[in-house]
Amino acid sequence: xxxxxxxxxxxxxxxxxxxxxxxxxxxxxxxxxxxxxxxxxxxxxxxxxxxxxxxxxxxxxxxxxxxxxxxxxxxxxxxxxxxxxxxxxxxxxxxxxxxxxxxxxxxxxxxxxxxxxxxxxxxxxxxxxxxxxxxxxxxxxxxxxxxxxxxxxxxxxxxxxxxxxxxxxxxxxxxxxxxxxxxxxxxxxxxxxxxxxxxxxxxxxxxxxxxxxxxxxxxxxxxxxxxxxxxxxxxxxxxxxxxxxxxxxxxxxx
Length: 254
What we know:
The chain is of the alpha/beta class. It has seven helices and ten strands. A five-stranded mixed sheet has the order 3-2-1-4-5, with helices on both faces. Helix 2 (68-80) links the parallel strand 4 (59-64) and strand 5 (86-87). The protein starts with a strand and ends with a helix.
């Protein structure tokens, strides 16, 4: 089995693949203070709860948007699973041409999304990652990754609002009962939910004007399910796009 580890800013997504089949998934919090042993014991116990034993793991691949944690998880793979992981980065074959001013600046997660999306859909593509950051990426009709746009995610925006506005208290991020809030909690929820829904819709329309009106729009990320009811412009939701891309890159580099 392949252990796929995608280290994000907020959480670490972990998938166990048996061939092309995603056998099990789990998430743990991203914490740069955690030692390899802390993550190692945690992963072993969580995988056991999913019916996956240490000896079942025969290979590993990892990507990260948090560079300090790469060495942490490399050690976890070596010490706890006895495998040398493939680390997605410079020199690793992805099969995707990157048309960026400096390809080294593109986050591994963005390329993994493009890899997985191209395997499932016909370009042009627009990939929207609704996570810690809100990331829009474009894949041309020729199948090239051509860049994108990055904005603060809805979670970051809400935290900044509560920290900077003394009269506002923290609220849960959810769809309000009405657009026009009748109290402060409902008003904040409306601004976050509908404001970000409109941002996503508007950005996708602008992207389509450049890459093609027939572009397939794919959403992923932790907030995709929350905003989806307002996003009729989305064609497909792929919650494990990052892990699928990681598996495909591993297979391409065997």
